[in-house]
Design goal:
heterodimer; A: 419 residues; D-Maltodextrin-Binding Protein, domain 2; 2 domains; seven-stranded mixed sheet; 15 strands; 43% helix; B: 293 residues; MetI-like fold; 3% strand; flat
Chain lengths: 419, 293
């Protein structure tokens, strides 16, 4: 008997740790078909976690991004949520409020030194954490600014509203470009609140009143918001920027092919600009329209579902991922911004002197997360429609008032969304 | 006089062919646009949309989009899943709905007209409105599996098939068609001592080819185009159908249009093949019942 036991113990010792009984954890990921390195890296992360310990085995299920949020909603309804959820930063409060997710319960000391965007906080608790962030910049060429006598702005001294308008006018008058500014109007959906609400915030307005999250009154239709709306409309009326009918292909290559002088675009589109223009490429901070320069923040993050039977396992996986090594790997693979400065130092693009270093600085200095409220998913759509309508010539004040009414009605319908 | 009449006939024929050609062109152009666009790089594809070049294989033509589409998504798995789910549903639907219709037309049973009335009323209820309660039901239904009794049908083929086997429209189609069959044949068979199953199998079915084809095509299209339901009940990639697979070709900001067109071209092939194989019977049925999809 003792010999049998000894033999069994010896055999068990020979087995790799991961082959022993591990409790299965399901992970849903939004990037099926993303055709970039992100999905491969998530798979690698899962494999390494499974091999590194003997308690848990994460099984990944990938969904196309277009269908992901609906699939999560349906699964929540049917009580079939996975243990670990992948969630877009601004959507997280809605899922937390709807009780799809639970607080991470993570030691916040582990998040020290993170950029603000990748930490998903709701009602004072951390619900999700991202391994990367994204940032946008005014992308152009130094030679273009020099040619038209336009000052090169810095983080400490960004363009003012007057300077920015003058720059657009000078370029327009030259007739050298089809449009001075490309805002990316061809991209719809989340791009509008992510990329354009910072302009509104820089004017002093916002999508919703963040002090209470109970109304958009005053924030989205006050004097600052109307000033923003009128400026926004003037960009299209003056022919400074292509409107909602912009060709998606022009958005992709318009700057590189000389159709546009300046492009408001993200770090994910920056490398081709560096390759095309070399040292002439410039990534400039958002202008300061009066209330400080602002850019958007927060990308996809990991969280734990409210129905998980093994939150400690899910947490262990997320903590395993929160290492500079993974931040650097994702950044090198996808071009996105690593979430800590120490990880940035190890990347090829964001290290000191790297071609995209400025984006890390932009994230650190100018980033503001979108309104942290469960109602954001409705507010984002209302905001998108309002901006498109104003760009197409709708009356600014009326459009913003209507948007406020719609947002307020939604907040009332949902009894304040738990704020 | 004879020459004038011949000229008129010729003119009428020319006009008829001109109109038919125009209609054919209107129906064929979207498919042509899709197929031609699948051969072009994105930038050219979008530029060409403003002119007739969009319908021609001109410019930088290649099959690169097809290669990229196959790399991006397991297209073979998706097509196979859709064909399997659609094929099984169509087969069971034809059997169940035609038998139900047979019972409504040829059998006398208490409450028959009332039940048929309720069935017709279901036409006005879109499937989407019952999806949420149906989802909740699916998540609680039992099934006898390899490990004994299991609870929950989510993430299975049966969740994609069984709710769609019987539907009011198919039964209505069969009822309308069966009503026009010569009743003398049925009555004579009864007099000869044939049972209802024999009458259904040997007399009604062989005479009802066109309506079977019509019901099959309509059900095929409905099932093959399903998006929302499989999105709600299927989480595993290996049983995902083609329409959910379309989501693999869009991300937050960019759509690779060439790959999308390549994917759409590939997944259109089974639909066209199925329709063309039943086209003659479908047209015959439409002509006789006045119903089309």
């Amino acid at each position: 008997m003792n010999r049998k036991l000894a033999l069994a113990a010896a055999l068990a010792a020979c087995l790799p740790a991961s082959a022993m009984a591990q409790t299965e954890l399901s992970l849903w990921y939004h990037g099926a078909g993303s055709a970039n390195a992100e999905e491969a890296l998530v798979n690698q992360l899962v494999e390494e976690f499974n091999a590194a310990q003997s308690d848990w085995r994460v099984v990944i299920e990938t969904f196309p991004q277009l269908a992901y949020n609906d699939a999560v909603g349906a699964a929540a309804l049917a009580g079939e949520l996975p243990d670990i959820l992948d969630v877009d930063g601004p959507v997280m409060p809605n899922w937390a409020w709807a009780e799809y997710m639970r607080p991470l319960g993570i030691d916040e000391a582990k998040l020290r030194g993170f950029l603000p965007g990748p930490i998903g906080r709701w009602n004072g608790e951390v619900y999700s954490v991202g391994l990367w962030d994204a940032a946008v910049a005014m992308t152009t060429r130094r030679s273009t600014l020099v040619k038209y006598g336009i000052r090169v702005p810095t983080l400490d001294a960004p363009w003012t509203l007057r300077e920015f308008n003058d720059a657009l006018r000078k370029i327009k008058v030259s007739g050298d470009f089809e449009y001075p500014l490309d805002l990316g109007m061809a991209w719809r959906g989340e791009w509008y609140p992510y990329a354009f609400s910072p302009f509104l915030q820089s004017f002093g307005g916002d999508i919703v009143d963040r002090s209470t999250y109970q109304s958009a009154e005053g924030a989205l239709n006050g004097d600052a918001a109307v000033a923003f709306g009128e400026w926004w409309q003037s960009l299209f009326e003056n022919g400074y920027a292509p409107g909602t009918s912009q060709d998606a292909a022009d958005r992709e290559v318009g700057l590189l092919e000389g159709e546009y002088a300046i492009s408001w675009n993200g770090n994910w589109a920056a490398l081709p600009v560096v390759e095309a223009f070399g040292d002439d490429a410039l990534f400039l901070p958002a202008p300061d329209f009066g209330d400080g320069p602002v850019i958007g923040a927060a990308s996809w993050q990991f969280g734990v579902s409210a129905t998980s039977d093994h939150p400690e396992g899910a947490r262990a996986f997320i903590e395993f991922a929160l290492r500079d090594r993974w931040f650097s790997a994702f950044s090198d693979g996808t071009g996105l911004i690593p979430v800590t400065s120490t990880a940035a130092a190890d990347t090829k693009n964001y290290a000191p002197g790297g071609p995209l270093e400025v984006f890390y600085e932009l994230s650190e200095a100018q980033a503001l997360v979108r309104p942290v409220t469960p109602g954001y998913i409705v507010q984002a759509k209302v905001f998108e429609k309002a901006l498109a309508d104003i760009a197409n010539g709708a009356d600014v004040a009326d459009t913003l008032d209507a948007a406020v009414d719609e947002i307020d009605a939604d907040i009332a319908r949902n009894r304040g969304y738990g704020h | 006089m004879a020459a004038v009449s011949s000229d008129n006939r010729g003119l009428r024929l020319a006009v008829r062919y001109a109109v038919l050609t125009l209609v054919a062109v209107i129906f064929v152009f979207p498919l042509l646009f899709m197929a031609m666009s699948s051969l072009k790089p994105d930038h050219q594809l979008l530029t060409d949309t403003g002119s007739l070049r969009a319908f021609l294989p001109v410019g930088d033509i290649s099959f690169d989009n097809y290669g990229a589409a196959f790399e991006r998504a397991p297209i073979g798995v998706f097509v196979l899943n859709s064909v399997l789910v659609t094929g099984v549903t169509v087969a069971f639907s034809l059997l169940v709905c035609s038998m139900a219709a047979f019972s409504f037309v040829f059998l006398n049973w208490r409450g028959r007209d009332a039940v048929f009335g309720v069935l017709l009323a279901t036409f006005i209820i879109p499937y989407e409105t019952i999806f949420v309660p149906l989802l909740l039901m699916m998540s609680q239904l039992p099934w006898i599996g390899r490990g004994g009794i299991e609870v929950g049908w989510l993430n299975t083929y049966r969740a994609q098939i069984i709710p769609f086997i019987a539907d009011g429209l198919s039964i209505f189609l069969f009822v309308q068609y069966f009503k026009d069959l010569p009743r003398e044949l049925i009555e004579a068979s009864r007099v000869e001592g044939a049972g209802w199953w024999l009458i259904y199998r040997r007399i009604v079915m062989p005479l009802s080819g066109p309506v079977f084809a019509t019901a099959a095509i309509l059900k095929f299209l409905f099932m093959y185009n399903q998006y929302l339901w499989p999105l709600m009940v299927v989480q595993a990639e290996d049983i995902r159908p083609v329409m959910v697979g379309l989501g693999y070709f869009t991300d937050q900001l960019n759509v690779p249009w060439g790959e999308v067109m390549a994917y759409l071209t590939i997944i259109t092939v089974p639909v066209l093949a199925f329709y063309l194989s039943l086209q003659r019977a479908f047209i015959s049925s439409v002509a006789s019942t006045g119903v089309k999809g």
